[in-house]
Design a protein that fits this description.
Elements: H1 3-22, E1 36-39, E2 44-46, E3 55-60, H2 65-80, E4 87-92, H3 101-107, E5 113-116, H4 119-154
Parallel strand pairs: 3-4, 4-5
Antiparallel strand pairs: 1-2, 1-5
Helix pairs in contact: 1-4
Length: 155
């Protein structure tokens, strides 16, 4: 087998392996951390309110133009999979003082719930995501180094 064919085979193996890492049993990955946030009206919502239900978690801000473009697509996705019970839960963060996110959602013609973000929780979530990404990268690097060793020893 020439080197080009070996590289194509290696690329395919890497892609399949990365896909298997992502499709592993959910027990291989930690569950989402528990959270509780308040809505604009002062109602408390939490992750446990949606236990066992599919959720589209949407982080946004009233001033964000990209968020405004994304929201109709999220609503369409929710409608497409409504039989599964999927819900949009939006979390408004980094808002300007005096912003009223739930009012803004209603003004845009949507009715999904919006919680107000506190910066400490966001920092925790970013740290957790970074740790999970680092773990995934380490697994991929280990696999690639093992694959390289196999290819080298086959020559």
């Amino acid at each position: 087998m020439n080197i080009l064919a070996k590289l194509k085979t290696a690329q395919l193996i890497i892609i399949i392996s990365i896909m298997s890492i992502f499709s592993s049993r959910s027990a291989d990955f930690p569950t989402a951390p528990a959270w509780q946030l308040k809505t604009q009206a002062g109602k408390t919502i939490s992750l446990s309110d949606y236990q066992g239900k599919p959720v589209i978690l949407h982080f946004w801000a009233t001033w964000c133009p990209y968020c405004k473009k994304l929201q109709p697509k999220l609503v369409a996705l929710e409608q497409k999979y409504q039989e599964s019970g999927v819900k949009i839960v939006s979390i408004s963060f980094n808002e300007d003082e005096g912003a009223l996110p739930q009012d803004e959602i209603k003004a845009r013609g949507y009715d999904f719930i919006t919680a107000l973000m506190v910066s400490q929780w966001l920092n925790y979530m970013v740290l957790e995501a970074r740790q999970q990404l680092s773990l995934l990268i380490a697994k991929v690097k280990l696999f690639i180094s093992q694959l390289a060793l196999i290819l080298i020893t086959q020559n």
